[in-house]
Write the structure tokens for this entry.
Amino acid sequence: EIHCTETLREKLRLYCPSVEILSVYNDPVAASHDLKTISADVLFLDIEMPKMNGIQMLENLGKYPADVVFTTAYDQYALQAFKLSAFAYLLKPIDKEELIQCVERLESKQTNGINDKQMQILMQHIQKQNSIELAKIALPSMESLEFVYIKEIVRIEGNGNYSNVIHKDGHKTLVTKMLKDFEEMLTPYHFIRIHNSHIINSQYIKKYIRSDGGQIEMENGDILDVSRRMKTDFLKNLGFK
């Protein structure tokens, strides 16, 4: 996105005067080609790019002797992968203070570059996320067996010995399975139990509303209670204490 690269360039110029900008690219293919002849200390890579994403570009570069800072809109699982693999990242829109602190940390490092272990951990988590993207589940009802992509399920609501599965496109399926069956099955796919009656797909959380136990607003507009008993585990699952 041209406006994103220009915004980052301007913020670096204004707030990080020690940084010399060698080049700016909006085409990752051109950047990959030119970086073979450019000796940079730091690469700021946007995750969301046409033709290839920032992680694919980094993989294509191989052992390029520079530090990398990923820039991305909020994506819980991408952020988790960056944290576990010790890659620096900045959330868009990029905050001035976070940018300054990031540059200061990079300047204080003794050596530049990415080690093999970092890249290995990052790719393991990205591959895991890719497998989640393709996973399907069978939803048994009284009339049929519906096969759906797990990523298309927004939440599941308990209904006695049955469960209501709410899909991304808005339709609901009454399933002949209890909520506890789904909890065991879907926990590896970033689903979280927030209440005796609710399991949610955490990628569809829009907002957490602080209150006694709290409430969750989902991207489809649903407002759900978080039980006091499950609040602590829920927040830990999202990376908060």
